[in-house]
């Protein structure tokens, strides 16, 4: 299990009839399906990166300590965020969570990221000679979708009603597995409403088929290339305004 769920808004043409809302969302999300098979192409073998990552991680841990030790130091320095860590998404103060993420980035990640970039630029990239996949060439062929963003999705889900700024009753400890948490009618509004209420998801898919995101969501809820919260908020509001009067459907995506 990868355990990465994230709130995504799908923007649809304003003339989309109610009977076509679900299928229209399905169509816009289809190109980003992890299981979508694409024509075979060449890419760098994972063995190259695995060796580099191993070397980099060792040097980062030597310089800054492990992430576990960093988390412990951060928790000791900021007891005000303990309540955030014990809640499910949507159950805590978004502003408090944003502040926690901002401080974590500044106090922990910025220096690590800087050194990581420096090491990536200097370390020699070499394949493993006896790699079973690339046979030491460093190149493999794959049919994996390079645009993959999700392996499972549903309307609403953990964010049932959020797009309408509604606090709907949750179940299953906030996971909302039941079908009544997947009603399109409870998870659809116009972009004007999202703009006015500043409803900011993790990702947005626009009618032209383009994917916009705060960062690249990976396994175990690890996010890379993450935008500053303020910058992403401005971008999301810009998109809502650009597609003023359009329909928007809130979805729960998993990768």
UniProtKB/TrEMBL annotation:
Domain of life: Bacteria
Name of the protein described by the UniProt record: Uncharacterized protein
Protein's organism: Candidatus Woesebacteria bacterium RBG_13_36_22
Organism taxonomic ancestry: Bacteria, Candidatus Woeseibacteriota
């Amino acid at each position: 299990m990868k355990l990465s769920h994230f709130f995504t808004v799908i923007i649809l043409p304003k003339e989309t009839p109610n009977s076509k809302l679900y299928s229209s969302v399905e169509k816009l999300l289809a190109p980003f399906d992890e299981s979508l098979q694409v024509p075979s192409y060449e890419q760098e073998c994972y063995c190259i990166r695995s060796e580099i990552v191993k070397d980099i991680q060792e040097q980062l841990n030597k310089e800054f300590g492990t992430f576990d030790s960093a988390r412990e130091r951060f928790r000791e320095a900021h007891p005000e965020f303990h309540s955030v860590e014990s809640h499910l998404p949507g159950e805590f103060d978004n502003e408090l969570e944003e502040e926690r993420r901002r401080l974590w980035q500044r106090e922990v990640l910025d220096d690590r990221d800087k050194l990581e970039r420096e090491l990536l630029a200097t370390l020699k990239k070499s394949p493993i000679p006896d790699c079973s996949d690339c046979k030491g060439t460093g190149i493999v062929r794959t049919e994996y979708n390079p645009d993959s963003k999700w392996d499972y999705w549903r309307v609403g889900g953990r964010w049932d009603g959020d797009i309408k700024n509604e606090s709907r009753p949750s179940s299953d400890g906030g996971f909302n597995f039941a079908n009544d948490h997947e009603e399109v009618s409870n998870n659809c509004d116009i972009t004007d409403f999202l703009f006015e209420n500043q409803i900011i998801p993790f990702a947005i898919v626009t009618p032209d088929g383009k994917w916009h995101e705060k960062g690249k969501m990976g396994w175990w809820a690890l996010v890379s290339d993450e935008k500053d919260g303020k910058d992403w908020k401005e971008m999301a509001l810009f998109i809502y305004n650009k597609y003023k009067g359009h329909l928007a459907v809130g979805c729960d995506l998993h990768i």
